[in-house]
Amino acid sequence: MKKKVAAIPLVLACMVWMGLNPAKEYEMTPKDVDLSYEEVTIPTADGAQLKGWYYPAISKKTSYKIMIISDDGEGNMADQIEIASKFLTLGFHVLSFDYRGYGESSEFAVKKKFFIHTQFEKDLRGAVQFVRKKYTTLTKISLYGQGIGAGLSICVGANDPKIRFVIADSPYTYFDATSKMMASAGEDKMFPMAYDKVAMEPKYCLESQTDMDKYKTKLLYICGGKDPVFNAKLMKSLQKLRPERASIHTVKTATRANTFSSDKEAYFMALKNFVN
């Protein structure tokens, strides 16, 4: 589980994916680390209201780029403040948000035994639509996600011709395979039973489009070299589906719990090299 934020500036809870575990209280806000931000409310197509934080770019140059951050289902968006700061440094505006049932978003009965709720896909799509309607000058939209947020970012962004980059840290591929791999690693989770496979599973999303000239989105897969499930072998299976536009960054000594925290400088450089 993610560690609680200590009273040290820009200390991010470790990225650990042990299932859905929402936190209602924010351990910190961007204001606590002197980051400018605006509280926003993001509507979804099915009527939920999501709490979000919009961070304006810190660069003095005009920026048309925005990064939308999706969480791994553990905690809430307060855990993403440090990674948001990295994208600000790279010249992006940033939007983070809480899934329904998390933080101050709409009430929702999150089941901790579940791997993911299908409603979270609607939440990310709502965030993308919100940016397009409210921040009309920010035409270069990119997505970053961790864990389930990584898989959703692929599904929402990879086949959208207007999404520039998708950065997926420890994404799943498809539910049947993920269920078996997690069970063999001692992680027993419940998975969706009725859903749109293209909308929810990266493998089928990436396989669904044959007109590759239309879809220019570039993908970066990040994984821990020592993770028993979401490892380089799994990332390569995704890369093969879009080999001309996908790359992999492996943190050799990490699991999905610490891909970022084990070597923050190397992680940042991987992000920088990819988006530049």
Walkthrough of the structure:
The structure is a single chain. This protein has 8 helices and 10 strands. With 276 residues, it is of the alpha/beta class. It has one domain: Rossmann fold (3-Layer(aba) Sandwich), CATH 3.40.50. The strands form 2 sheets. The chain has an 8-stranded mixed beta sheet, sandwiched between helices. A two-stranded parallel ribbon has the order 1-5. Helix 3 (148-157) links the parallel strand 7 (140-146) and strand 8 (163-169). The two termini are 33 Å apart. The model is unreliable at 1-17 (pLDDT under 50).
Enumerate how many helices there are, as a single number: 8
The helix/strand series, from N terminus to C terminus, equals: EEEEEHEHEHEHHHEHEH
Question: Which bin fits the share of residues in helices?
Answer: 25-40%
The first-level CATH class is given as Alpha Beta
First-last Cα distance: 33 Å
Largest β-sheet summary: 8 strands, mixed
CATH topology group: Rossmann fold
Could you name the CATH homologous superfamily?
Alpha/Beta hydrolase fold, catalytic domain
- Strand pairing plus helix content: what structural class? alpha/beta
Describe the structure concisely:
The chain has 276 residues and is of the alpha/beta class.
Task: List its salient traits.
276 residues, alpha/beta, Rossmann fold, eight-stranded mixed sheet, two-stranded parallel sheet, 8 helices, 10 strands, globular, disordered N terminus
